[in-house]
Amino acid sequence: MSARPYDAIVIGVGGMGSATVYELAKSGARVLGLERFTVPHPFGSSHGLTRIIRLAYSEGSHYVPLLRDAYRRWRELEDVTGESILRVTGGLDIGPRSGGIVASSRKSCVEHGLPFEELDSDAVNRRFPGYALPAGLGAIYQPDAGYLHCETAIRAHAEAARSLGAEIVSGVRARGWDRTPTGVRVATDAGRYEARKLVITAGAWARDLVAALKPLCSPVRQVMLWTEPLAPGIFDPDRFPIFVLESPVGNFYGFPDNRGEGFKIGKFHHLHQAVPDPDAMDRECHSEDEAVLREGIEAFFPRANGPTRRMTACIFTNSPDGHFILDRHPEVEGVFVAAGFSGHGFKFCGVVGRIMADFCLERPRRRDLSAFNLTRRRSPRAAHAPPPREQTP
Question: Measured between alpha carbons, how far is 149 from 313 in angstroms, rounded to an integer?
Answer without folding.
Answer: 17
